[in-house]
Design goal:
It is a single chain. By secondary structure, the chain is an alpha/beta fold. The chain is 39% helix and 16% strand. A hairpin with a 4-residue loop joins β1 and β2. The radius of gyration is 23 Å and the shape is globular. The two termini are 24 Å apart. It binds 5'-O-[(R)-(carboxyoxy)(hydroxy)phosphoryl]adenosine and zinc ion. 5'-O-[(R)-(carboxyoxy)(hydroxy)phosphoryl]adenosine binds next to α5 and α6.
């Protein structure tokens, strides 16, 4: 393949979980189109993503999202210079739908094709020209025009904190595609912890935004533990989730004791009280809000402390925040406040799964002369490629 021009226009697909996404990005940084069809309303009724349902929905949605993206590209199909898709990590069946569709498009149009690592792509959302230096500010929508002038490209070495539903890791980026893993979660990913804790608290799906919203109602009142795992950049969030569960159970037990104490005295067998109901009472809204606040504080404190320490230890020029949990406004603000160097994070809409970030990562792959053949298969457990 010839050297990719700065204007190389890439059509990318993302189907690793429950978002069917297609995007067109020019020169690795300029978003031409960014279409995301979320399946969340379908999965919500099951309390989480059902892999088979996700795959089928992708098959139904891919043609429409591709057409919607193409409709925003002046010149249409003829202006597309290359095709990319996520090939891992993610749900196998879901990945297959996007990867095969992208390969078919590339084959039919005789275009170069490259597979992209989903975690790497989350980091590359920071190369999109919509990225901001002001981590505390809420971002633009993905289809909003790029700010003028666009933020300069991030300069290596960089420290990236990737916090998504499936992954939580700290990496040192020494160049395009050159990563050193500094630490990762030993159990739940940060987003997974948000989702599980939200479920325990009876909040909605997805849990991250639900906890953030509840936390905004009640600052303070409850403190939850932090797993520091000293002398390591690793993380652990499963104990925190258990602490939330114990708080809820403690409340329910107290309620049950009060209810038993207040039962009327039995005078005769005929007066026997009705058996207690099995449905455990949910703590009042205020207590849930306090728990949500304490949970969020605990996660944010550990993430921010370790990220800032790692950036200092490795002489990073900037900190990059990435992944769905990077949408958390408390995390963005606290990292910006405590970091000694600039913090860059994508606009909120580019933090969660989208295909513009796939196209951005693909651009730098093509620049390095990398592309894939038709034999590329899905890799559900694909790790970030550490040098
Ligand atoms: O990156 P992503 O869209 O999908 C994966 O690749 O996993 O991340 C989804 C995760 C979910 O766990 C969701 O609860 C979390 O990101 N998330 C948030 C927020 N928005 C999404 N977590 C905390 N605060 C948010 N505002
Ligand atoms: Zn993701």
């Amino acid at each position: 393949m010839p050297e990719p021009s700065a204007e190389l226009t890439i059509l990318a697909l993302e189907t690793s979980c429950d978002e069917t996404a297609a995007a067109i990005v020019r020169g690795g940084r300029t978003i031409v189109a960014n279409i995301v069809a979320s399946q969340i309303d379908i999965h919500r009724r099951y309390g989480g993503v059902v892999p088979e349902v996700a795959s089928r929905q992708h098959v139904l949605a891919i043609p429409a999202v591709v057409e919607a993206a193409l409709a925003q590209l002046p010149g249409g199909w003829d202006a597309v210079g290359a095709v990319a898709a996520t090939y891992g990590p993610g749900l196998a069946g879901a990945l297959l739908t996007g990867l095969n569709a992208a390969k078919a498009i590339a084959w039919a149009r005789e275009l170069p094709f490259v597979g992209v690592n989903h975690i790497e792509a989350h980091i590359y959302a920071n190369w999109l020209a919509g990225g901001k230096h002001d981590a505390g500010a809420a971002g633009a929508t993905p289809s909003a025009p790029a700010p003028q002038p666009p933020a300069p490209e991030p300069q290596f070495p960089l420290v990236a904190l990737v916090v998504s539903g499936g992954h939580t890791l700290l990496a040192l980026l020494e160049g395009h595609g050159r990563y050193r893993l500094l630490g990762q979660t030993r159990d739940d990913a940060a987003g997974e912890a948000f989702d599980k804790a939200a479920r325990i608290m009876g909040l909605g799906v997805p849990g991250g935004p639900a906890i953030q919203q509840a936390a905004a109602q009640a600052p303070g009142g409850v403190t939850l533990p932090r797993a520091w795992l000293r002398d390591s950049y690793d993380f652990s969030f499963s104990g925190l989730k258990t602490a939330v569960l114990h708080q809820i159970q403690g409340h329910q037990n107290r309620e049950a004791r009060v209810a038993t104490k207040n039962l009327p005295q039995r005078k005769s067998p005929a007066d026997a009280p009705a058996p207690p109901t099995t449905a455990a009472p949910r703590p009042p809204e205020r207590h849930i809000a306090q728990l949500a606040y304490a949970f969020q504080e605990s996660v944010v404190d550990v993430l921010v402390t370790k990220t800032v320490d790692a950036a200092r230890a490795h002489g990073a020029t900037e900190i990059l925040l990435a992944g769905g949990v990077a949408a958390n406004t408390r995390l963005r603000a606290e990292l910006a406040r405590r970091a000694h160097i600039p913090v860059r994070c994508p606009p909120i809409a580019l933090c969660t799964d989208n295909a513009a970030m796939i196209a951005a990562a693909a651009f730098y792959r093509f620049e390095e002369g990398r592309q894939n053949g038709w034999d590329l298969d899905v890799r559900p457990n694909l790790p970030l490629g550490f040098a």
